[in-house]
């Protein structure tokens, strides 16, 4: 029997401030988190965090170099905190990553294997960054995958649509939060 975990990726204060479009994203994500907890699916939070001075960022990494210049994602800075509307509970695992994928530079694979998790439910910001990178990495690690399309968010709605409607269905089940909650509801 498959053992699942819900990944809540990069829903940090600064990222939410940049991406939230007022469409009710955080309440939908909260419903997914609450639904997972109701049926004992572990909720694992993933945050991007860079050490002060960003020694792990190469000047060849265009994306992260720009992030460092903007002063974003330094571990311990207030903007790197998980948004209070979806904050972890006591005992929830919070994994810190150093790149786009939740697996890159983190101990996520170790945490999942220790819990015998073989299936992931992906949520987060941004669809074109954390979600896409993590999905590809998880495919290579042979995880079963579900993407909650409306619990993912991107600053470009068209990119989000293309990924969730055309690309992701090749490797994952793509559902809405409501459809997923119905599927996991106790019978």
UniProtKB/TrEMBL annotation:
Keywords annotated in UniProt: Hydrolase
Any GO molecular function: hydrolase activity
Alphabetized InterPro entries for the sequence: Isochorismatase-like_dom, Isochorismatase-like_hydrls, Isochorismatase-like_sf
Isochorismatase-like domain sequence ranges: 4-179
Gene3D superfamilies with a match to the protein in the record: Isochorismatase-like (3.40.50.850)
Matches recorded under Pfam families: Isochorismatase
Name this polypeptide is given: Hydrolase
């Amino acid at each position: 029997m498959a053992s699942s975990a819900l990944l809540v990726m990069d829903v940090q204060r600064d990222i939410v401030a940049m991406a939230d479009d007022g469409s009710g994203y955080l309440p939908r994500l909260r419903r997914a988190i609450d639904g997972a907890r109701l049926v004992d699916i572990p909720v694992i939070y993933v945050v991007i965090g860079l050490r002060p001075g960003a020694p792990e960022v190469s000047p060849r990494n265009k994306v992260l170099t720009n992030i460092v210049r903007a002063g974003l994602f330094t571990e311990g800075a207030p903007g790197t905190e998980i948004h209070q509307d979806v904050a972890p509970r006591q005992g929830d695992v919070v994994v810190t990553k150093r790149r786009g994928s939740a697996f890159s530079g983190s101990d996520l694979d170790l945490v999942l294997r220790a819990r015998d998790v073989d299936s992931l439910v992906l949520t987060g910001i941004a669809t074109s960054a954390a979600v896409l990178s993590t999905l590809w990495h998880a495919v290579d690690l042979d995880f079963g995958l579900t993407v909650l399309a409306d619990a993912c968010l991107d600053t470009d709605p068209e990119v989000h649509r293309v990924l969730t409607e055309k690309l992701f269905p090749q490797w994952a089940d793509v559902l809405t939060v409501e459809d997923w909650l119905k599927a996991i509801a106790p019978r």
